[in-house]
Every structure is written in structure tokens, then in C-alpha cells.
Amino acid sequence: MVSRYFDEVTVRKTKREFITHTGRIGKTFLSVISSGIGTDNIDIVMNEVDALFNVDLSTRLPKQDLRQLTFIRIGTSGAIQRDIPLDSCVLGRYSLGLDAFTRLEISHTDDLSQKWYDELLLFAEARGVSLKPAYMAFPDEGMFNILGEVGAHWITVTCAGFYGLQGRSIRLKSHADKLFQTLSDFEAYGLKAGNLEMETSGIYLLARMLGHRAISVNAIIANRILGKISSDPYAVVDRLIQHTLRNLVA
Asked: Which numeric CATH code is attached to 69-249?
């Protein structure tokens, strides 16, 4: 869906769920990678892409001159605010990580999102909801400025699973409904949690730790509060891809 907009594709590689196409648009060279679902796969993708550029593969030691890379997530997401329309796009202004990276006990954030998070913990505690362990992460400001008009700006919540851990129930009853209702209701400093997905916080966190740039753009194909699903999710994803690439290579 992405590489069909390249002027030229020079490399196509596939390994398990990871599919990589490398090529160019005009004079801009880029690769698009299907990461699979979840921050566990993001851990693989980002560390191995970084190693290709910044590790001497013969000695397995870091190079002296490190190269800064740019990671852009283009993915699907579900809204947790009534006023986020179906088939719209959301830019992750910050990310709240509820994923396995919480075990690292590392947070890369700024003063504003740290204050928002601290107040969120108090708000959730008053409702009898536990948010810990969690962490905050944020994108590269330069990339945010380049792609800022792609979508509305919200805090993106990254979950550790697809079904129960995102409040979905089939035969097993999820106990996360109260958590996501709490996130939907909370607002401070003009910031609100807007959407759920499974990769953004890991991308933001690892990019900060490795010295790279990152941004996450999300196609809203469901509104979880309203219980509505897009009738044509591929169309909104395609629009998001085109809009992102236009801004990226402008």
C-alpha cells in the first residue's frame, strides 16, 4: 500500500511477518516495513534497523559516527473520544505506554506530559483504577512540525494486547472497560487521550533512547465510544499514506 507510491522499488525482502520495500520518491530514499502487531515486534524492528546503520557487523561493536534515522508509524487505530470522527487521522502528540516496555522503568517525556500523567494517576486512583505501571513518551518535534497538519493532535494510548487489554470481550470478559472510560474522561492542560493502538509508545521510547526521530500517524477506523466502524478502512489508510508521503518528501 505504501511502496506503490514510490518512483522506484530497489529491494523487496520478506522474513516471517516482516516485509521490507526500499526505494525512492524523487531524490528521497526510504524503506517501508511491516512491523507486525505490538511493541514486542517494534523492539525487533527498531533495534535491528539501528544496527544496520550504527553497528559494525564484523566486530558487533557500535560505530564511532552514529547516524540518526527517522521512523514514521502509519497505522490504524480506534478512537476513545466521541468527537474524533471515523475516517479521520490522529497524530500522536504524546503517547501513554501500557505495554511491556513498562518493565524497563524508563520514561522519556517533557514537563507538560509529566504533569498530565501525574494528574491522570490521581484522577484514576480516585475512581479506583490502577494505571501503573505506565510511562509517557513523545515524538521528535521536527517531525511533528513537518507532519503536524496530517491529523488532529491527541495523546495516543499504546496497549499490550488486542482483546481483553483493549477492553474487547468475546468469550472471556475484559475488565479494562473502566480503565479506558477513565482515560476518555480525563483532561488536563488541554491534553486528552484520543486513541488506542499497539505500537506508538514503543516507537517513541526506543527512538529517544537510540537517538533517532519518530512520529506516529493513525487512521481512525473505529470509534470505540460510539461503537462504530469505518465502512471503508482501506480508503482512509490510503489517504493517510499519500498525505504522509507528500509532506515527508515535499
From this structure: 3.40.50.1580
